[in-house]
Every structure is written in structure tokens, then in C-alpha cells.
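Internal tracking record. Fields below are filled automatically when a chain is submitted to the structure queue. Please do not edit lines marked as system-generated. If the sequence contains nonstandard residues, flag them in the REMARKS field before resubmitting.
Queue: standard
Priority: normal
Entity type: single polypeptide chain
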Amino acid sequence: MKYYSLHHKAPMVSFREAVIQGIAPDRGLYFPKEIPTLSAEFFQQLLTADRNEIAFEVIRGFVGDTLPKSVLKKIISETLVFDFPMVSVENNISALELYHGPTLAFKDVGARFMARCLGYFNQDTSHEKVTVLVATSGDTGGAVADGFYDVPGVEVVILYPSGKVSDIQEKQLTTLGKNIHAVEVAGSFDDCQEMVKQAFLDPIITKARTLTSANSINVARWLPQMFYYFFAFQQLPKEAAEVVFSVPSGNYGNICAGMMAKRLGLPISHFIAATNVNDVVPQYLLSGAYQPQQTKATIANAMDVGDPSNFIRIQALYGNNYHRLKEDLSGFAFTDEQTRSALVSLYRAHSYQADPHGAIGYLALQKYLQEREAFGVFLETAHPVKFLDVLPEALSEAIAIPENIQRILPKKKKAEKISTYSQLNDYLLTNA
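SYSTEM-GENERATED OUTPUT FOLLOWS
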């Protein structure tokens, strides 16, 4: 399997090279030259197949020969060590809970998978240490920190926007120590992401460090998210003929992975991009004009993204054909007030504890189903405990704090504070 840059100005590379580089030299995201196919037999056995075997069949065509079969199976078995339950909320609506991993966020799968791939690729001690440089709007930081913690030959530098992640999210990425380093940026997530991209193109930095990224721009973080959708189909009620997924969307890696799963043959009828007021994609679907926005802070902070990196991959999946894309994708945006109202409604009417991102997924699904008959699944991407500081009081008081969160609360935050790229440059060179 070869990967090419979506900017079309860089050489094609293998899966191994795409993982290590993270982003192409021309700043483009890597995309598979060909999309593998899954057999009819695979889909016939999907409902009863072993979860690890499903993941192996789904991902192996994208990995090619860069990982031996036994190594890939081991990586998958070490990645999928928690459940992905589907919980009924209403007659035709269920929540797919993706937050039962070690950091209580859906990003645990991609982070664990990528960490193990990179550990294998970097196992030859003759190679210099790899630095994972990543920006986070919330949950990526904690998942990457946990996934890469103490991985030999790998250092991690995580940039996060000051005051724009929850207290628990901040604790998860600033308290581990060892090879995990946190950098608190005076700015937005988009500012953090721009600094990361700039560092990858900085010859002084790349001469001093071998850089890779662990955002969903990295193929090893992005592609394993396909697994969720296959696992969801194993749990659907038998009467669910037409299935719609509503995906809380910030950088659009998760929904893009779902669309890739559909290209592999999974019979998903439609996707809904559920967003907060950072609604660049819903606006694009209305107008046909893609216009990046200045990021606005909301209580659903993981979706505070004004220029989502992975949307270019979605466009590539559809041959950059706006009309074809609109057949498979709708988009709806909601305010903080609407989100809080949905959180309360879900709890009081259905005894379901959602987080702000899941609540937005639920709202978007409700809106879509007003005019169509289908079975809807909204993705719950993070445990509500991570958002105690923004949840309505009646809800936050009812949430039990998991033991792994209780352990980190007393720990002291350690983070380097910066506000400009030059400061990041100095930090990376000084600590090289």
C-alpha cells in the first residue's frame, strides 16, 4: 500500500514512512493510493466474528507489508482492551459509547494503535529518538500521553490551548512526566495546530529532531477509527435496515474514518456531522464554499476547530465532488444553550448521562430523523466526568468519578507556557 500527499507535491510513501513522517513534506495529509476491498464472506460473518479478527481484516490492506501479520495482530490485541457498548436511548436512537478506554475518550484506540506501530518501526536502536509533536483541543492530548507513555525511543510534546480544555483533560496530559511533555499555548487549537505544522517544515527543527504527529492527520491515528463502525453493526437491532451515524466532529478524523468504512462496504446509509458553533462544514454543505473560520470557544471544546484538517480527506474520498458528498453527508450546528438543554433532557427523559459532544450528536440525529425513517446512532466520544466544569449542576453532581480520574486529580500540573512559534522553536531546540 502506498500513500500520496493530498497536496500532490511530495513522493509516495509506504505506511511505515507515512506513520513516521506524520505529514508530507509539502504539508499535505497522506491518503491511500488505493482503497482495499473486503470480501463478501467477511460481511456474511461480521455479526458473529471476533472483534480482533474484524479489526485485522479491516486494517491490514492499509498496512501492507510494513508490519508482519503476527505483529499487526499483537498490536490490535493490545489496542482493543476495552468495550464499545451500544446503549439504547430511544426506540430508534442509540448511543455508541467510545469512552471506556484508559483516558475515557474515543481517541484511545487510535493513540494506542499508533504508539505500538511507531514503537515497532523505531525498535532498531541505531535510529535516533522520534518526537511526537501534537496539538490537542481536549481529548487527543490525554490519549496520546497515555498511549505513548514510556514507549522506548519516543518523546511526546503536546500543545494545548490555555484555558480551553477541561480541568480533567489538562490533568491527563500534564501530570505523567517521563517522556511526555506538555506545552500550554496562549491561543486557540488552530494556533496550536498551525505551530505543529510550522515545526514540521522548519529545517532547523527537523535537523535536530525526527518529528511525527499523533493527531488524526497521522494515518495510524486516523484509520483505526474505522473499527468503531464495524463494532456498531454487530450490536444493531435486527429491525435496523437503514442506519445513520451522527458524529460529533471537530477535526473530522472520526467521521472520515466512518466514511472510509462505508467505502470498504459497510452498509451505512448516511452520516451527520454534528458541530458546535464552529460550523465551517455545515456551512459548506449549504453553500458549496469552504471558508475557514476564527475558532470560537464552547463547552464542547474538542470541536472548537475553525479549519478542520481531515475534511480534505473526506473531499478526496468523494473525488472532490460536492454533489456526491452531499448525498452521504449532512451537517448541523448547535449553541451551548441548546447543548445544555439536550444534556438535561437526555438525563431527565431517558436517564442517559451524555457529555457535551455526545449531546450535540444526539441533537443533530434528532433533527435529521424528523424528516426520515432510519435507525440512528450517535457517538459518545468522551466520558461526561471530563466536563464537570461545564455540565449543568444537577448532572455533574450525579456523575461518579472513575478511579483512574481520582488518581490524577491531586497531581501537580507541569507545562511549558508559550505564545509564539519562536518560543516553541526554542523549546524544541533547547530540549532536543
